[in-house]
Amino acid sequence: MNYKKLFGALACVALVGCGGGRDGSDRAVIQNKGSDTLVNVAQAWAETYQEVNPNVAVAVSGGGSGTGFAALINGTVDIANASRSIKDSEVEQARAQGHEPVEFIVGYDALAIFLHPSNPMSEVSVEQLADIYGENGTTETWTQLGVEVPGCRGQEIVRVSRQNNSGTFAYFREAILGTGDYKLGSRDMHGSKDVVDLVENTPCAIGYSGLAYANEHVKMPCVNSGGACVSPSSDTAIDGSYPIARPLFMYTSGQPTGATKEYMDWILSDEGQCIIQAKGYAPVRAVTCSAPAGSE
Prior knowledge:
CATH superfamily of the largest domain: Periplasmic binding protein-like II
Helix content: 25-40%
Shape: globular
Oligomer: single chain
Strand content: 15-25%
CATH architecture of the largest domain: 3-Layer(aba) Sandwich
Number of strands: 11
CATH topology of the largest domain: D-Maltodextrin-Binding Protein, domain 2
Order of helices and strands: HEHEHEHEEHEHEHEEEHEHH
Largest sheet: 8 strands, mixed
């Protein structure tokens, strides 16, 4: 009997429904899908982990938190990435398929507001954001907010949002709109980078996305929720002073075992947390990083 192959087959069973399986080099493969907010750091984790454990490969794809949860429900991933908590309805669907979602907080993210660099606005309130994005809001032009944006024809605000399968979309609605819904007519982008790219090239635009997608070609106003106006950063996400900061999640079906458990343990280790910090997110706890691990 070939005990090596037998052991490999048994190891595969330890992964969710053998969703990871093994590749042509006989490595265990962990399937990891979901949040677009987390996809960059998930890829950095996967690439670095190849060096930590060459016997395990991690296949990462995005598509949004809803996509990750759908895959977890269907048993086609080992880990689902999410920028929102799983819904009760999704838990029920998973249980109906024999999966018990287990939640891990793997970091924190400040949800930044993005403006075109020519926009003179340096501060925005939660109330103003609700009036811009909310279904009952009346703010349609920049002049209503007391500013005039160079190059913005008619000063009409172009609202940039995310598609409704995005955890970022769901979190922004909850944090800013409360029990309300979005106003129709926004430009709903597939990914976080798409939001930033559109704002960068559209003087009239305002958008929201994870802080890690910020670049030097967009402007980020501080956000006021009734007190001091706080700028988005890793520190203000950790200490809770930034009003629209959120946890970032990974979900498994049941408590992870085998290769998946080892990978999750590593993500939550100092090495894994230094990578998420280098990518512009806040780690789950204070860590001391000797080098910019995972940075590009």
